[in-house]
Amino acid sequence: MTTLSDIRTYVRQLRLRGVESVEIREGERLVSIRIDVPAVSEGAATPEAAPTPDSSLIDVRSATLGRLLRSHADRLPVQIEPGDEVSQGQLLALVALDENLVSVHAPVDGSIGAVLGAEGQIVDYGMPLFQLKPRQR
Asked: Lipoyl-binding domain: from which residue to which, for each copy (predicted)?
């Protein structure tokens, strides 16, 4: 029987290989998976940060699917809010996927322009979570 964990694994593999859809048949059961976001090839940059239409802002994106945690008792006691100054590599949020916590980090030094994801929201791979204004050098 195909489990939710199996489906998540299939989705990750589809994205890595650039495949848009797959069907899996187990007896009478048919599971069909279709990927709507652009595929990322191995060795390519993750979708954690991408330019927005306003070239002065960077979208900080989820690198996985799961439940957004803007705070966490052990790893992120204070939520990041608009206007907060952040440093490159700073932890901004976590995405809970099964028992795993996937970190979302600031790709550059700057200030948070907007928070696009809500606490506990289900997020998908590549979904924008924050907008970041890079610090001028």
From this structure: 59-132
Q: Judge residue 91's burial from the number of C-beta atoms within 10 Å of its C-beta, 0-12 exposed, 13-18 middle, 19 or more buried.
A: middle
Is the pTM above the cut of 0.90?
no
Low-confidence stretches of the chain (pLDDT beneath 70): 1, 13, 15-19, 36-55, 137
pLDDT confidence of residue 111: 96
Strand pairing partners for 97? 100
Who's near 90: CB < 8 A, 6+ residues apart?
105, 106
Question: How far is C-alpha 133 from the chain's CA centre?
Answer: 19
Picking from 62, 41, 59, 40, the residue whose alpha carbon sits closest to that of residue 50 is 59
DSSP classification of residue 111 = E
Q: Is 34 helix (H, G, I), strand (E, B) or coil?
A: strand
Q: What domains can you pick out in the chain, each with its CATH number?
A: 4-34 (no CATH), 49-134 (2.40.50.100)
What residue type is assigned to position 51 of the chain? P
